[in-house]
Amino acid sequence: MSNNRKIKVLVTKPGLDGHDRGAKVVARGLRDAGMEVIYTGLHQTPKDIANTIIQEDPDAVLLSILSGAHNALCPKIMEQLKEHNIDDVLVAVGGIIPEEDKDYLRELGLQGFYGPGTEIKTIVNFVKENIKR
Hints:
Elements lengths: L7 E5 L8 H12 L3 E4 L6 H11 L3 E6 L4 H14 L6 E6 L3 H10 L3 E3 L5 H11 L3
Helix pairs in contact: 1-5, 2-3, 3-4
């Protein structure tokens, strides 16, 4: 990644979860921190997310899942990335993720977990510190 190019982040809402306020707040915070942000909106399928990653080539993907379906959706999303040989993108998930699920999600390749109330600067710092340059 060129140091001149802004960090590009995809913020997306997989599944049927209809709560998008947090995702919009995160997207705005990342944009205010100088990043290029693509927000896909609600009800994205794992295939939709993979296709957007292929088209937009983001540095990071932030999934927002408040429905409790993270153990169903994250494996499908990571499988799509693997099928398309996408292995150079930082993937994190926000939402209500129980501690006992995080090891499983880490094994899938997710690298960050952010629940309600997380300060935007924490997410911004996570992205900045973990993007491969």
